Amino acid sequence: MRRASSAYHRDMTQDPASDHPRIAALIVAAGRGLRAGGGLAKQWRNLAGKTVAQWTVDAFDRHPAIRRIVLVTADDAPPELLPQAGATPMTRVTGGATRGASVMAGLSALDGLADLVLIHDVARPGVPPKVIDAVIAALADHPGAAPALAVTDALWRGAGLVEGTVARDGLWRAQTPQGFHLPAILAAHAAFVGDPADDVEVARAAGLDVAIVPGHEDNLKITTPGDFDRAARILERTDMDIRTGNGFDVHRFGPGDHVMLCGVAVPHDRGLQGHSDADVGLHTLTDAIYGALAEGDIGTHFPPSDPQWKGAQSHIFLSHAVDRAAARGFAITHADVTLICEKPKIGPQAAAMRARLAELLRIEVDRISVKATTTEKLGFTGREEGIAALATVTLVKA
């Protein structure tokens, strides 16, 4: 799932007195959840490679506005299936016998640590970032906000036979997260008597207005066995993050008896000049990866003003870029390099270059293209003053 655009940003050291409110997510995962089948509470079941709870935690962990996560579970939740925290601090709290008691436990744990709280059902793993954005935005003007979808189908009343119809005007299908100013909803829960259907009911009982913001069909609540298949299709579609990066580099010829191109020493009557070993192919490919990650270029990570990189082998730079991609969960799925020069001839070396790039990129050689072209004697490459290179890479969120 792509990172949401938001007026807020995650800053763990932010002054509580700043203009940006401290926003927490409270994920309710203490229910037994057995109606969905499988013999295991639905939040701990596998869904497209992760538990339902992990998907839900990740959705809020990735959102830049969320500063803290509280996960409310039963005391006997399976330790091996509990979701792992990401960049956002997460606290686990033991819930109560009812949903209302579990929410109250989570709110109490947040008291004094957040200004706004988004209360979310763990069984809604596909919540889109824009739904979270909408709830947060509405809280600037309202004490409460919740996403919903207008009822569009005809409504009947009956048991086996249709006994009547119900007007659907003004009816909404409620979703979560339901957001509130923390002190207000904490006081409302403390005063509420009974087991509420949701937190909007609690807020309204306390006289708090709750704004309706647009929900989303992807924000499905897993309830029945068939919902797992639908949720998997949603998550496999929306969690896909494909990026393309481009690189371009030039190095002039100078004294030497070979050039380094794509990690291969190619015999030539001149060498390439540069702060490192001047491998224009590897430099271009490295910049393409950094570009796909939106992390600058080689100069950002390896400044030419730093003497430790003088004469360095360029595979060091490329390996760093590959490691950065892996650390952010991306797999490199394809690389295409074009070398632009009159000489040396690239064709005889292309297979060796592809093999070396496969080692450095850690992918199969049939996912790598190395080719060459000339500029028909035009420009600096046509005058054999240097070599230029273009590269394109594709990254996919693993």
Please provide a written account of the structure.
The chain folds into 2 domains: 23-238, Spore Coat Polysaccharide Biosynthesis Protein SpsA, Chain A, CATH 3.90.550.10; 242-397, 2-C-methyl-D-erythritol 2,4-cyclodiphosphate synthase (60s Ribosomal Protein L30, Chain: A). The protein is built from 11 helices and 19 strands. The chain has helices at 52-61, 99-110, 129-138, 182-191, 199-205, 226-238, 280-293, 298-301, 315-327, 350-361, 379-382; strands spanning 23-29, 46-47, 50-51, 66-73, 90-94, 116-121, 144-150, 155-158, 162-166, 172-174, 178-181, 210-214, 242-254, 258-261, 264-267, 271-272, 330-340, 368-373, 386-397. The strands form 5 sheets. Strands 1, 4, 5, 6, 7, 10, 11 and 12 form an 8-stranded mixed beta sheet that branches. The chain has a 5-stranded mixed beta sheet with strand order 16-13-19-17-18. β8 and β9 form a beta hairpin. α4 (182-191) crosses α5 and α7 packs parallel to α9. The radius of gyration is 28 Å and the shape is elongated. Keywords: Isoprene biosynthesis, Lyase, Metal-binding, Multifunctional enzyme, Nucleotidyltransferase, Transferase.
Provide the fold topology:
Elements: E1 23-29, E2 46-47, E3 50-51, H1 52-61, E4 66-73, E5 90-94, H2 99-110, E6 116-121, H3 129-138, E7 144-150, E8 155-158, E9 162-166, E10 172-174, E11 178-181, H4 182-191, H5 199-205, E12 210-214, H6 226-238, E13 242-254, E14 258-261, E15 264-267, E16 271-272, H7 280-293, H8 298-301, H9 315-327, E17 330-340, H10 350-361, E18 368-373, H11 379-382, E19 386-397
Parallel strand pairs: 1-4, 1-6, 4-5, 7-12, 17-18
Antiparallel strand pairs: 2-3, 6-11, 7-10, 7-11, 8-9, 13-16, 13-19, 14-15, 17-19
